[in-house]
Specification:
1 helix, 138 residues, mainly beta, globular
Amino acid sequence: MRLALAPGLAVKPSRIHGMGCFATARFARRKKIAEYTGEKITNAEADRRGHRRVLRISGLDGRWSIDGSRGGNGTHYINHSCRPNSFMQTVHGRLLVLALRDIRAGEELTIDYVSSLHSDRKRCSCSAPNCRGTINKQ
């Protein structure tokens, strides 16, 4: 099955980790890049799935999460960076990816995961000058 990508995005190998999500168009600071899509699941189910495989799950609110590996649009390949160029925000029950600064076509999209289902020992490989060494902020 072929992945239906959000407009302006491409998925390809990343220098940060495995595959990454890249801009194919310019995105202006504070503007929407895409909606993070996938299967809506309870946070309890997210915890259960998180212990079994590579995580492509993002929290929506205190009760719900979205598993981007099931019906996602490429945004689930956005890797962590301690110096991100985008961020996520829940707006009217939808999880949006927004540009933290102007993003050029060809740039890999990154988000500071801050707190994730990854172990607190999960090492960061973003190579940013301010890298804290772990994905989760402790």
